[in-house]
Design goal:
By secondary structure, the protein is of the alpha/beta class. The protein is built from 9 helices and 7 strands; from the N terminus they run ααααββαβαβββαβαα. Strands 3, 4, 5, 6 and 7 form a 5-stranded mixed beta sheet that branches. A two-stranded parallel sheet has the order 1-2. α1 packs across α2.
């Protein structure tokens, strides 16, 4: 029998991976329901490794930001984002399949139409349910949102279906303007199993906005900073804690 020198990859189950993280003190044992929360995050489907890292960390950090804000020594980020949006727009929607979490926020909550399809499905739901022909989409994990930057994106005389800021790191789809003409193109991508937000861009008209449109109001681009990892949640609140891969480790893993 010939020797097989094929590369071997050992994949841990979510439970095994969580036990390893706990043993290495990458997950604090005293966090409420930490094993269940981490298992749900690890068990979700992701299109690639980079989005898996971001999605897992955001899911874990977001859970504790929403359910246990006292652990973060302050209010939820979504409360701040809502207040900014409510001052700027006549209607604010929260797209969530768990509306009970936001019962205290005075706006409409709408569910995904395409369930378990990621952020792209959330944008689709917002477009379908909104009363206006265009919507400004912002992530609820963007605590430094700047009203002047939002106005710069939304008040231009843009005829395109998508108006999206572009930074050195690429597009900022969770700080962008979308029109109803995007609905059909988004549905086609979701039905084909494609979840990348920009996957539908080739089928609509897109205007990319450079830094000159907002640099005067936000020279550091903080408006576009979202909290990708649980570490960043706690560090922002002044209490560093390790909940997994650091940002630099994630970059090495995805690079």
């Amino acid at each position: 029998m010939a020797d097989l020198n094929w590369p071997t990859h050992i994949f841990n189950t979510p439970d095994q991976a969580i036990n390893l993280l706990l043993a290495a003190n990458h997950l604090p044992r005293d966090l409420p329901r930490v094993k269940k929360v981490a298992a749900d995050a690890l068990g979700a489907g992701y299109p690639d490794r980079q989005q898996a890292h971001a999605g897992i960390n955001t899911a874990i950090g977001g859970f504790y930001a929403d359910r246990y804000p006292e652990l973060l020594h302050g209010a939820r980020f979504i409360d701040h984002v809502y207040r900014v949006m409510n001052d700027l727009f006549e209607e604010v929607l929260i797209v969530s399949n768990s509306p009970e979490l936001y019962a205290d926020i005075d706006c409409r909550k709408v569910p995904d139409i395409y369930c378990a399809k990621g952020v792209l499905a959330g944008i689709h739901a917002g477009l379908v349910h909104a009363r206006s022909d265009r919507i400004f989409v912002v992530g609820c994990d963007m605590p430094f949102i700047n009203p002047q930057v939002v106005r710069a994106i939304c008040t231009g005389d843009w005829p395109e279906d998508v108006v999206i800021p572009v930074l050195q790191g690429g597009h900022e789809p969770l700080h962008a303007l979308y029109g109803r003409n995007c609905i059909t193109a988004i549905e086609e991508q979701l039905q084909a199993g494609r979840k990348r937000i920009i996957s539908f861009f080739p089928w609509v008209n897109v205007r990319e906005l450079g830094a000159e449109h907002w640099q005067e109001s936000d020279p550091e681009g903080l408006s576009f900073r979202n909290i990708n990892t649980p570490e960043e949640y706690f560090q922002l609140r002044g209490e560093p804690v390790s909940l997994g891969l650091s940002s630099k480790e994630q970059q090495r893993e995805s690079g």
